[in-house]
Specification:
Elements lengths: L11 E5 L4 H11 L4 E6 L12 H10 L3 E6 L5 H15 L4 E4 L4 E2 L8 H26 L6 E5 L8 H4 L2 H20 L5 E6 L7 H7 L11 H11 L9 E3 H7 L26 H8 L5 E2 L7 H12 L2 H7 L1 E8 L4 E7 L5 E4 L8 E6 H8 L5 H6 L4 E4 L1 H20 L1
Parallel strand pairs: 1-2, 1-4, 2-3, 4-6, 6-7, 7-8, 10-13
Antiparallel strand pairs: 5-9, 10-11, 11-12, 13-14
Helix pairs in contact: 1-2, 1-8, 3-4, 4-6, 8-9
Length: 412
């Protein structure tokens, strides 16, 4: 791994999405130098499925040798960004580095992506990056090491990266276009670069994107933390670059990459937007059709599906033999599925694998009530709150299964 040099000692890093995953890893690497870290993220209270909060991250950062300022920040909200920046300047005297890490992702096609999710990705990824950069730039221009680092890919116009998740690609390339524009606009004053991984990185996002066992095909967040550290300790003249983590670290003399692997020796999955057999990557990743919103997808429907997924057993699959699709409207509009027919079974967001045996249409709030025992499917159907298409016998099977597991679902 890349050793620390102490070059970030006393520097202030404003990192979005730093309560967990890649953002926290970059924060901890800088903290070892004695840096000040502004943890700008949404999670302020413990979550029963997602790890960490801005406060637990702050404890880890200070234990590593840094100073921390936890701030509740949704990058879609200008006033929250401004407030966090003001607090950072008041506490640490300025801002030297901005890491735009917070991001939202939905690997769904054009017709399957609700407008609400399109708005989320565009607002969090492109607009959030632009806005946070704009608010931090006056202070970055005053810094001796002023630097913006976006966790975004090189702009690859190969159509394969657009055809399966057009909205997501546009939103991530928007972050990358900020690099192109701002690097030139602020040349000599603030360095602006992008960083992207060569392989999939294991975070909470990958659990939903790749399904069970995907972690073996991933590297740990440490590799991006090392690459980010390398970039942020370079002079301002290093700007306008789209850096791939492994390429940079090889240039820095790193030879052992097994230390970054979750399962050393196991084949690794290349990340998106790099033309390393892109069709194969698409086939491996996208049949799952999971949706993850970088800790955004944590509403009642998402939580219910996590519980359902955890309750699926081989016996349930064997006794049910049905694939269910749920077309939900309302607060958490979207399509979800429960596969109790294939393999070990599965559940998640997106269209059901293959042709569903049963399609249920209802509001997201009624869905949550149905699976928590507050609304029986038969009553929902009779009252017109639930529309069922397909094998009604399988729908009844699901109801019996729900009744058997309601206590477990309702208590979590």
């Amino acid at each position: 791994m890349l050793p620390n040099t102490g070059k970030l000692a006393g520097c202030t890093l404003f990192i979005t999405g730093a309560s967990r995953g890649i953002g926290k890893a970059i924060a901890l690497k800088a903290a070892k130098d004695g840096a000040n870290i502004v943890i700008a993220a949404k999670t302020g209270v413990p979550h029963h499925t997602l790890p960490g909060t801005i406060y637990t991250a702050a404890e880890e950062i200070e234990a590593a040798g840094g100073k921390a300022l936890p701030c509740i920040v949704d990058v879609r909200e200008e006033d929250q960004i401004t407030n966090a920046v003001d607090r950072a300047v008041e506490k640490f005297g300025g801002i030297d580095v901005l890491v735009n890490n917070a991001s939202a992702i939905s690997l769904t096609g054009t017709l399957e992506t609700p407008t609400k999710k399109v708005d989320l990705m565009m607002s969090a990824n492109t607009r959030g990056t632009y806005l946070t950069s704009k608010i931090c730039l006056p202070y970055l221009r005053e810094s001796k090491i002023g630097h913006i680092l976006n966790i975004s890919p090189p702009i690859n116009l190969n159509p394969v990266w657009f055809k399966n998740h057009c909205a997501y690609t546009i939103s991530k390339y928007g972050m990358s276009m900020c690099v192109l524009g701002m690097a030139e606009e602020f040349k000599g004053e603030v360095a602006v670069n992008a960083l992207w991984p060569q392989t999939a990185i294991y975070t909470s996002a990958m659990d939903m994107l790749g399904g069970g066992g995907v972690e073996k095909q991933c590297r740990k967040t440490d590799i991006l933390a090392d690459a980010a550290y390398c970039i942020l300790t370079k002079p301002k003249s290093f700007t306008g670059n789209f850096v791939i983590d492994e390429h940079l670290l090889r240039e820095e003399g790193i030879k052992d990459f097994d230390v970054y692997a979750v399962a050393p020796g196991h084949p690794l999955l290349p990340d998106f937007f790099l033309d390393v057999d892109p069709e194969t990557i698409a086939m491996k990743m996208e049949p799952q059709e999971h949706v993850h919103f970088a800790a955004e997808n944590t509403g009642p429907v998402a939580e219910t599906f996590k519980i359902i997924k955890g309750a699926i057993t081989q016996d349930v699959v064997k006794s049910t033999q049905g694939v269910y699709q749920f077309d939900l409207s309302g607060e958490e509009e979207g399509t979800w599925y429960i596969d109790l027919k294939n393999g070990a079974g599965n559940a998640g967001s997106g269209k059901a694998p293959g042709k569903p045996d049963v399609v249920m249409t209802l509001s997201s709030s009624d869905f949550v009530k149905m699976f928590s025992g507050k609304l029986k499917p038969t009553m929902a159907f009779m009252s017109g709150k639930l529309l069922i298409k397909g094998d009604v016998a399988l729908a009844i099977k699901l109801e019996r299964l729900m009744l058997r597991n309601q206590r477990d679902i309702g208590d979590r």
